[in-house]
Amino acid sequence: MKTRVMTALAIILVVALPVAFGGWLLELLALFILLSTAFEWMHVRRDFNSWPVYVYPLTVVLVILTRFIPEHYTYIIYALGVCFFFSLPVFVENFSLPDSYYCLTYFILFSLIYHAIGYLVAEYMYLWTIVFATYGSDTGAWFVGSYFGKHKMNPRISPKKSWEGFFGGIVFGFLLSLIVSFLYADSLNGYLNTLLCCLCPVVAELGDLCFSAIKRSNKVKDFSNLLPGHGGVLDRVDSLMMNILLFGILHVLLIV
User: Is pTM beyond 0.90 here?
Assistant: First the structure.
């Protein structure tokens, strides 16, 4: 427990300034998360150590390019990425077709997330709402589930999650993010901020289950042990990443 608490405090210290002020600090944090989650995502695959060494860095580069190259060329990057991952099993014996699908999923998913982070860098206060909704939901689900959980939600994917915890997390995440956002909501789009308060707690729960399914499919408990007592970076930000993806969708619909 002591190790877990100390690691949690260290995480808070590292992310506090980027979340509070956005800008280049948030860009650096996003880049670190991109690099670490790509490695963790691939590392759980059984044959990862026998993959070509260029798969990991090239995947990260492709994700970064989808955000920073001129929009006119975005299609080309996606097309090249898809062709690369689909063709790699033809030429590399220890890179299977399931490995190809797995890496392709990361490329598509995190290029969309990284693109949404671009919106957040410029309008970082939305990230405050997302963070409080996400981790408020996580905390509420743990508390209500621990004390009142009786009806299992999906034992095949996550044996400990209950429906009581699910709804408790949604309520707590919604209330916490809504109340806290009153402090800064005047500078945000009211519809977008309110939708984030309502939807992020739900998507956070879904995101946690989706990433749990990935770990269970690969027969691992955590994506890595980089954060003592907490697993890997991806174990800590899985729900947050899904909510940043949600933010990107809502931002395009309501603002762009």
Answer: yes
